[in-house]
Amino acid sequence: MEPLFVLLHSPSMGPSSWHSAAEELTAAGFQVRVPSLLHVGAGDPPFWPRVADAVRDDLRQVPAGRPVTLVAHSNAGLFLPVVRAALDQPVTGSVFVDAPLPARVGPTPVAPPELLEFLTPLAVNGRLPRWTDWWDEADVAPMFADPVVRRTVTEEQPTLPLSYYEQRIPVPDGWDDHPCSYLLFGPPYDGCAAEARDRGWRVAHLPGAHLHQIVDPAGTARHLVELATES
Fold first, then answer.
1. I need a surface site. Which of 22, 54, 130, 151 has the fewest CB within 10 A?
2. Tens of pLDDT along 120-171?
3. CB atoms near residue 175 (< 10 Å)
4. Dihedral of the CA atoms 10, 189, 130, 114 (nearest 10)?
5. What is the spatial distance between Cα 40 and Cα 38, in angstroms, rounded to a whole number?
């Protein structure tokens, strides 16, 4: 049975960051789910249980025996172990897309100290601006090929609390007891891709900026299928 792709967007972004790639996978004959994680920054910490709950709830109508492939973009990758542990469905593959990796041992910090040092002055009353507002226009513009798509993706972004980036996410033992792989777009995630290779995972490279799944959804979908079906 071919896998059902579950595309996890970064909680810093929104589901529309995966919609075009989801359409490509659907056109290729695959079933796809894109759970919304837009609400996970509401309320007080901890935030990670809301990510796992959101994915499990989105798959509630999927039969418990239906195999799924989890695909996590950007910092959604850090939540993949707790998502995998929360699901009733068997996870037969996990693909990290331009994403940081969960710690090998112990809980994973969402943000390293240097990122927290950058983010703290940006927060107003404990809440950060939208992710694309963190960066200069020269950095953001190349991530979008279409102004309409850019507006949709930008307006959908949540304003997360700083405490979201201060959390540590548990890493359940044995979460990676299935084929895992990595799809690299480019820096600064090349180090993560190298670590994935050190862990014995398959690694593919589709050169592009961090939101390249928006710019080249067909190429992204093709690589996801290859990684999911050849692991």
1. 151
2. 999 999 999 999 999 898 888 888 888 898 999 999 999 999 999 999 999 9
3. 18
4. 120
5. 6
